[in-house]
């Protein structure tokens, strides 16, 4: 949820309080772009679970309505969406949309069509600029893909994060002195790839570490993406537990090495770099 979303939800909350109405958010699962580009979907920034947890933590939304985006929904006309979903199902009285919002079959619905509906008031939220650029999910994806975590996190107002359940892996890390937490990734394409300095929220508290997000080309021939984090000064059992990985800084792109000793030597350098960064961060925050 980037800063544009956060400003929008605060505005919605203010309007709801003034009208003595609850706040509600309508979202789709899967994302419409995933539905229409199944062979090459855009990178998913967050899971539905993460999205709901973030919204709950914000305290700005009373209800979230998740609509299954399927062929029937994709074929719904803009006018039917207004009458069947907004008026009949949600009983909308005030609607706040983004300034580029389009909806309905062939994306024919827009602000003008919504404004013509007498059942509710419609307003469009102006764009929110962050460092001179319009805050948007597309821009967050671009910054993450480029490895520019500082810019991505500025757009988000916090560190980018991925949460998931800890799964059993190949257990290669423990044999080379770097046991890892293997986090299940529910989506095929992550928004970022490489080796990163991270902090991981666990049932035992937040732990610093170094993480790899990619296909592990040196030790695996699979094209499946994997998120593996080595936690510093930690030896607990996290299997089956949910953890949240916060990405703080990208160290490098993923690489293929000729042999295991070369990979281990690079992991040692990555861990040292991550230690140095986390130590400097702790000093700044002290």
From TrEMBL:
Gene Ontology molecular functions: ATP binding; FMN adenylyltransferase activity; riboflavin kinase activity
Pfam families hit by this protein: FAD_syn, Flavokinase
GO terms of biological process kind: FAD biosynthetic process; FMN biosynthetic process; riboflavin biosynthetic process
Record domain Riboflavin kinase: where: 155-279
Pathway: Cofactor biosynthesis; FMN biosynthesis; FMN from riboflavin (ATP route): step 1/1; Cofactor biosynthesis; FAD biosynthesis; FAD from FMN: step 1/1
Keyword Nucleotide-binding recorded: yes
Transmembrane feature ranges: none
Annotated SMART domains: Flavokinase
Keyword entries, A-Z: ATP-binding, FAD, Flavoprotein, FMN, Kinase, Multifunctional enzyme, Nucleotide-binding, Nucleotidyltransferase, Transferase
EC number(s) given by UniProt: 2.7.1.26, 2.7.7.2
NCBIfam families for the chain: PRK05627.1-2, PRK05627.1-6, ribF
Protein family (similarity comment): Belongs to the ribF family.
Function: Catalyzes the phosphorylation of riboflavin to FMN followed by the adenylation of FMN to FAD.
Protein name (record): Riboflavin biosynthesis protein
Organism: Aquitalea magnusonii
């Amino acid at each position: 949820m980037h800063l544009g979303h956060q400003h929008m939800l605060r505005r919605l909350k203010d309007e709801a309080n003034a009208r003595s109405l609850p706040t509600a958010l309508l979202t789709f699962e899967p994302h419409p772009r995933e539905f229409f580009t199944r062979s090459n979907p855009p990178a998913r920034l967050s899971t539905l679970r993460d999205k709901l947890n973030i919204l709950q933590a914000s305290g700005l939304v009373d209800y979230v309505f998740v609509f299954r985006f399927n062929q029937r929904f994709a074929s719904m006309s803009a006018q039917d969406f207004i009458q069947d979903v907004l008026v009949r199902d949600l009983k909308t009285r005030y609607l706040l949309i983004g300034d580029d919002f389009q909806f309905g079959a062939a994306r024919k619905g827009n602000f003008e069509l919504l404004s013509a509906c007498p059942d509710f008031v419609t307003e469009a939220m102006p764009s929110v600029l962050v460092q001179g650029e319009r805050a948007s999910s597309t821009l967050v994806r671009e910054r993450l893909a480029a490895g520019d975590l500082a810019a991505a996190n500025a757009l988000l107002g916090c560190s980018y994060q991925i949460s998931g359940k800890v799964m059993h892996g190949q257990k290669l890390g423990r044999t080379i002195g770097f046991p890892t937490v293997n986090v299940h990734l529910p989506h095929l394409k992550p928004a970022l790839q490489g080796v990163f300095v991270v902090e991981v929220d666990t049932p035992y508290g937040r732990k610093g570490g170094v993480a790899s997000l990619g296909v592990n080309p040196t030790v695996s021939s699979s094209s499946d993406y994997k998120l593996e984090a080595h936690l510093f000064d930690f030896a607990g059992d996290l299997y089956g537990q949910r953890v949240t990985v916060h990405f703080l800084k990208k160290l490098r792109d993923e690489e293929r090495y000729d042999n295991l000793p070369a990979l281990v030597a690079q992991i040692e350098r990555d861990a040292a770099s991550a230690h140095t960064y986390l130590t400097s961060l702790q000093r700044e925050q002290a």
